[in-house]
Amino acid sequence: MTSGLQIKDEDCGFNKNLFCVPKHYEDDLERVFIPHGLILDRTERLARDIMQDMGNHPIFALCVLKGGYKFFADLMDHIKALNRNTDQSVPITVDFVKTKSYCNDIPTGTVSIIGEELSAFKGKNVLVVEDIIDTGKTIQTLLSRIKEYEPQMVKVVSLLVKRTIRSSGYKPDYIGFEIPDKFVVGYALDYNEYFRDLNHICILNEKAKEKYKL
Ligand code: HPA
Ligand code: MG
């Protein structure tokens, strides 16, 4: 396990005017925090690391919706490219589970898991694909549910891990970026369902948090 690409607490990202962002979000963003290109480059390397470790066994990839869908799709594309272009190749099957644990930018303290067919995991090598690990509560709840069905192996990859005092201490097997305790959106991460349609991972301004508040 590595701690991923470290983004320091004092790192505040990039001026949004130096990047292309949708017009409808221009006034809502404070900074571009992780540009889309960097996300894809890091994802390419995660795909290589995962393939090296998971070896010759078929992978049962589980996407944690909704925030994980972009990362999942790009990670699978990179894994598929390795399958096409290297001697090692393993079949991949995919499934989806939906979790919800945030309202506004605050964890609700409850984790709902919706629409799962977790019994299919028995004897499989499961790769859980998450967008972000914050308190760790969502992933730990999900993992204990998956493990009831006796998979052969479970690995977790998360694009982001937040350094926060609210953390349970849980660390995934693979980490894209370790980030400071800031609320981020974009690349399928949302604030009350908005900003999933933004390529870069960005920081919102306070006005936007008010504007889209529930
Ligand atoms: N952004 C979006 N969703 C989240 C975050 C975040 O920073 N942390 C946990 N879920
Ligand atoms: Mg998530």
From TrEMBL:
Location within or outside the cell: Cytoplasm
Superkingdom in the source lineage: Eukaryota
SUPFAM superfamilies: PRTase-like
Record's keyword annotation contains Nucleotide-binding: yes
Keyword Transmembrane: no
CDD domains, sorted: PRTases_typeI (cd06223)
UniProt signal peptide: none
Domain Phosphoribosyltransferase stretches: 38-191
Catalytic reaction list: IMP + diphosphate = hypoxanthine + 5-phospho-alpha-D-ribose 1-diphosphate; GMP + diphosphate = guanine + 5-phospho-alpha-D-ribose 1-diphosphate
Pathway listed: Purine metabolism; IMP biosynthesis via salvage pathway; IMP from hypoxanthine: step 1/1
Cofactor: Mg(2+)
Job description of the protein: Converts guanine to guanosine monophosphate, and hypoxanthine to inosine monophosphate. Transfers the 5-phosphoribosyl group from 5-phosphoribosylpyrophosphate onto the purine. Plays a central role in the generation of purine nucleotides through the purine salvage pathway.
Record-stated family: Belongs to the purine/pyrimidine phosphoribosyltransferase family.
Assembly with partners or alone: Homotetramer.
Annotated protein name in UniProt: Hypoxanthine phosphoribosyltransferase
Provenance organism: Gekko japonicus (Schlegel's Japanese gecko)
Name of the encoding gene: LOC107109347
